[in-house]
Design a protein that fits this description.
The chain is mainly alpha-helical. The protein is built from four helices and no strands.
Length: about 90
C-alpha cells in the first residue's frame, strides 16, 4: 500500500497521508485485538500458564485466529511506463 501511495502522489508527505487514510480502516481491528491481548494478562505466571495451555492447541485453530486479520488484498502497483500520478 505504501508503494502505491508513493507512486501515485507527487510528494512524500502526501503519499504518507494517503497511506495512513487508506490503511487505518484495515489496521484498526488488528490494533484493537493486540491491545486486548496485551491487557488480558500482566502477571508473568499467568502469561506462562496461558502459553502452556495454548501449546497443545491444534495448529489450524491458531492459524485461523491469526489469519482473521489478514483478509485484505494489497493494491496493484501502477505500471512503470505510466506517467507519475496517472
Amino acid at each position: 500500500m505504501l508503494a502505491v501511495a508513493l507512486a501515485g502522489e507527487p510528494t512524500g508527505q502526501r503519499a504518507l497521508a494517503r497511506y495512513d487514510t487508506e490503511r487505518w480502516p484495515g489496521g484498526r481491528p488488528v490494533a484493537r485485538a493486540a491491545r486486548l491481548a496485551g491487557r488480558q494478562l500482566t502477571h508473568p505466571l499467568a502469561i506462562a500458564l496461558r502459553g502452556t495451555a495454548l501449546r497443545p492447541a491444534p495448529s489450524h485453530v491458531t492459524v485461523r485466529a491469526i489469519l482473521r486479520h489478514a483478509d485484505g488484498t494489497p493494491p496493484e502497483l501502477p505500471s512503470c511506463r505510466e506517467p507519475h500520478g496517472a
